[in-house]
Structures
1.
Amino acid sequence: MKLTYFIFLFSVILFSCGGDVGDRSQTEGLKLDSLAEAVIIPKGDVKIVEPVIDEEVVVIENNGITLTEVKVGVSDEATIVLNTKQFTEGENHLSFSVNGVFDYSITYLANNYALKQFSSDIFNVELMYGNNVFLAFLANKNGVSIKTNKGSVLRNAVLGGVESKFNMKQAHLFYYLPLAETSNPVLDFYLVNTAISEKGNKVKVTINKTEFIIDKWAAYKISGLKNSENTVRIQLLDQNNRNLEGPFNDSGERRFVFSSSSLNNF
């Protein structure tokens, strides 16, 4: 069956000064841009529903592929705050304050596509004319997202006087892992304004045409893959297993390959 994907018309966010994890020294000392223009920054009532903390390790198997829950021991006090209040077209310095966690990185996800990871609390990004939706969240030393109710920041920087096209109050699903290259694939995603449960919303995961239904928000180690080149797709479903409307609630098909040179170390 041919898949039809919802195409969300956002401006592409380019990164003018990226930094891999461990690049803290290259970005320290940056100052906020004093020439920021007036900008609409819709915030809405964004809510993060923390996943249940328990001792159960969820294991889901289908067609030889196994998803095994990855436990993350992180304080529920982990907090990230965006200090930058204004943005402009072109290069911007984003400044964050982080508390309650150590050995972390900040993952910056632009329009649910372009992704960078930083070990500095201050880094450069480039914003373009139009809607610039970005999710910044904390990740632990292994790169797994920290899923606390204060562990992320979601913004839509609307530049150029255009209309905001992103509903901050809506349920959103953001794709995170696996990255395009990995030596140890892990599935991870971020939920905003929604929870998933056995009787509520769920996340449908398709790996190499094999389907899984996930009702517990966690990262999952992927094992049993037979080939180095693979595909993954995630979709947010309602309690009746129907697709929930939203610009990012269907990731489309993402490709990833195994690579011994990958920096992932889950």
2.
Amino acid sequence: MNLARLLAARAEANNPVRAGIIGAGKFGSMFLAQARLTTGLHILGIADLDVARAAENCQHVGWSHEQISAASLDAAMQSGATHIGDDAMALISHPGLEVLIDATGDPRIGIRHCLAAIANGKHIIMVNVEADVVAGPLLARKAEQAGVVYSLAWGDQPALIAEHVDWARACGFKVICAGKGTRYHPDYHQLTPDTVSDVLTQYLEIDPGSINLKMFNSFLDGTKSGIEMTAVCNATGLTPQADGLSFPAATRFELADVCNPGAILSREGTTEVVSSLYRDGTDVPNHLAMGTFVVIEGETDYARQCFREYNMLPDASGQYAALYRPTHMIGLELGISVASAALRNEATGAPNGFRSDVVATAKRNLKKGEMLDGEGGFMVWGKQVPADKSLAMGGLPLGLAGGVPLTRDITEGELLTWTDAVIDENDPAVIIRREMEAAFGRVNAAE
């Protein structure tokens, strides 16, 4: 690793990497907390619809008033301070910007920002994994054609898992499974923003009034796991299991025993998410709720011997072993992606195919005419589905399942299709999704 040395060289040359971020919420604030301390990195601008809140968040994580006092992006270039404004497109198009970070969490907005960044010759760090799973393979291809980097966000679990997979393959190991931990129970699929705080306060010391409950609900109702494992599949060549994720309970020391084809997996070369709860609701000891992992196969007797000798967390048979990372630091680690894109022209994970999708799934019985409320809401959760299955059934992408009315009654647990909602075919996000399906899979065009 030599990113710190390369950043230091840019600082010494008085030419720091200049980045901008759209969205100064929790993830953005975590990144900004470390960005101001990173030699060779200059945050040129922050774009947020609530400028006052963005400034408050900056000061909360340690920024001085002087550091965020630049009256314009041009002034920020001259002084080395940072400009906070509400014009994302002005930030994207500024000639001094090298790397754009989209941390909005809105797939439609993220796609728009990404396309604008590519058109303006900027590298794009897609914290917005919701946008990535709607159209990431096509966005990454467009970025490559334009000579810029499209990257998953280091610190978020998909990029870390992609690194695990790359490590394993570069060492000559067959990847059996890769994934993460979470807190999961089957009942959580029915959680809503009104009920999720009852679960959150069981294991987090957090004031429900201080957080976005709709966002946190997506972490628990199964949606975020489906989104993140889809991003992993599309970036690594792993493919989903036939029925998606099963969320088995496992300690960090049982990963190789649980996540192998002789146990719960329907196939090798796939993704899974392990739960920190047993199905009876009791806690799994030594769980991996915030971590990531990869399970590999020892294809020779000697490799399996080494698994045992060096306590490489093998399964009972000794055929498989696991490597895990106990936690992820979210935005605090995002600078790795920024530096990698700017200094190495290299992504920290990027989609290169359409292998997995996230399909809107009914949380309850839904009625014709009801308006879908999208990720983390009261009506649908996102289920990981193999891309070919999603295309064959015409599955409605979760990222486009907000603000559209239903055309028929839907039964609880049913996967929604494009025809189940009134879709605006002129919506730019719908257009780019259709283009992605045509480029990477069987065309699912509207009649």
